[in-house]
Amino acid sequence: MERVYIFDTTLRDGEQAPGFSMTTEEKLQMALQLARLGVDVIEAGFAAASKGDFEAVKLIAEEVKGPVICSLARALEKDIELAAQALEGAERKRIHTFIATSEIHMKYKLRLPPEEVLERAEKAVAFARRFTDDVEFSCEDATRSQREFLYRIIERAIKAGATVINIPDTVGYAVPEEFAQLIEDIRNNVPNIDKAIISVHCHDDLGMAVANSLMAIKHGARQVECTINGIGERAGNAALEEIVMALKVRKDFFGGLYTNINTKELYKTSRLLCRITGSFVPPNKAVVGDNAFAHESGIHQHGVLSNPLTYEIMSPEDVGFPSTRIVLGKHSGRHALKSKLKEMGYELSEEEIDKIFEKFKALADKKKEVYEEDLEAIIYEEVMKIEEEEPVKVLHYQVQTGDKLLPTATVVLSYMGEERTATSTGNGPVDAVIKAIQKALGIEPKLLDFSIKALTPNTDAQAESRLVIELDGIKSSGRGVDVDVIKASVQGFVDALNRAILRKNYILSRQRVREEGTV
Ligand SMILES: CC(=O)SCCNC(=O)CCNC(=O)[C@H](O)C(C)(C)COP(=O)(O)OP(=O)(O)OC[C@H]1O[C@@H](n2cnc3c(N)ncnc32)[C@H](O)[C@@H]1OP(=O)(O)O
Ligand SMILES: CC(C)C(=O)C(=O)O
Ligand SMILES: [Mg+2]
Description:
single chain, alpha/beta, TIM Barrel, Double Stranded RNA Binding Domain, 8-stranded parallel β-barrel, elongated, binds acetyl coenzyme *A, binds 3-methyl-2-oxobutanoic acid, 2-IPM_HCS-like
């Protein structure tokens, strides 16, 4: 078994993408999570970039234990000195210095002849070695560089003391077979290559960053540079979660290679980054997207309900994803519907299910997803043939809140026609009003999920609340919409409560019928 080192550059290359800048505190929070995830190296930033980035690298170096902490630096003494200063407090530190090696970069960007680039690379590595014996050297734009020149600069960098040689596909130009050949060629043509670890750093401009990284690993690279959710310059870097899970799921193909990543932390890490940057991954994103373990079509749902392995090559638990999600929509079938109804507590005859299925399909043709509330409406109408009166009705509520006030709410509601009043405080206005409703009813349902979102991007937008609660073992969901977020939350909570109470009554009446043997 051979280890592949995971070098995370979310906080350096990832942060370079427009809209992904993080504050020092946010970078620290992310670095602590990366340490829990088990990455081997955290590239915490580019100390010479700004005072803020210097502070972030310094704070991470002092606070985060476990991984090697690294700072990027140009092949310049001033950059390397700043990197070394920022890293002083680290348990283990690495300086990562780089210079471009392609003709186009050397000619137009650096305006330096190749021999001068060779000299600078060598000097930079030797200078960095004064501060640490862990020095990484990158040949920027390696995939568009001349092979012979690459071999020479790598050899010189290793002689000068580089312990890791990174081969970046800076502009995402390579294709997997060609990139694998480049790694093979470096292994075969750089005489002292055995004294350094080969690393790769791929960009996704043509959507091949992960494929290129994996092929390089297959051909001898033992460090891979990547980012959470694949964030990074332009189209991004290779996604950490995809590389790690590919190595794990396809260990048959990758021949005994392993990483030290605790894959159960992957989803949490991805979501933390989304929350910090305010940028969410697309639903179809591999490994961590909302739909990565969701199934809407009937044939797939039937398969997954019988055995998840029919349509899932990894389990949601493996990556810390909440669970497989069976989504009811127009492509769903009877098996999924039956399973959902059972989960909701309804045990219905085949004839009843047929009726519900017909109505469900008709509804699904009109809307994207059919929720529990929609199914319940069909059940009440088609099976129970009742128009239930809502057991709980909020008649009036009042909330006091402010930056120097303890949020307090008073609620007047009716429960089965009986008027009740209660007052409660809470962490915020929504918490206070929900606690007051619970107090008035003398119940404490568990709040399993609560989200509130604006339906349009204006300050006067309608807010939509969605809640899932559990009352006496019965799970139910509710929804509320209003321009006032507190009112939308109250509506959603009461909606979920009413559904739970009605469902409980239904289950009890069915039980009674079964016990008495009458209809
Ligand atoms: C592929 C990559 O991801 S590389 C990393 C990219 N990341 C960043 O650039 C983020 C941080 N960067 C910054 O904050 C700024 O660019 C700084 C502070 C580093 C430099 O800012 P400035 O001094 O104003 O220079 P500016 O960014 O305009 O130009 C870059 C300079 O660095 C030089 N340079 C670029 N790469 C290197 C290198 N590896 N080694 C030495 N010099 C380099 C360029 O030739 C140019 O030099 P010049 O000013 O003599 O023309
Ligand atoms: C600094 C280097 C490693 C880089 O980010 C790139 O070449 O893409
Ligand atoms: Mg890069």
